[in-house]
Amino acid sequence: MTKAHHEEKTLHKLVNRSKEDLCSGQPVDAGRREAIKTGALGAAVAAASSVIGAGTVFAQESRAVSTSKELAGKTAFITGGARGIGLATAEEMAKAGANIVLFDIASGQIPNVGYPMANESDLQSAKAKVEAVGAKCLAIKGDVRNRRAQESAMDQAVKNFGSLDVVVANAGVTQAGNIEEFSAEEISVVFDINVAGIVKTTQAAAPIMKKQQAGRIIYVSSALGRMGNELFPVYTSSKWAVIGFAKSAALTYGKDNILCNTVCPGLVHTRLADNEYILKKMLPNDPNPTFDRVSEMLKPGNPISIGHLEPLDIARAIMFFAGPATAKVTGEVFDISYGSTARSIA
Ligand SMILES: NC(=O)c1ccc[n+]([C@@H]2O[C@H](COP(=O)([O-])OP(=O)(O)OC[C@H]3O[C@@H](n4cnc5c(N)ncnc54)[C@H](O)[C@@H]3O)[C@@H](O)[C@H]2O)c1
Question: How far, in Å, is the centroid of ligand 1 from the Cα of 170?
Answer without folding.
Answer: 6
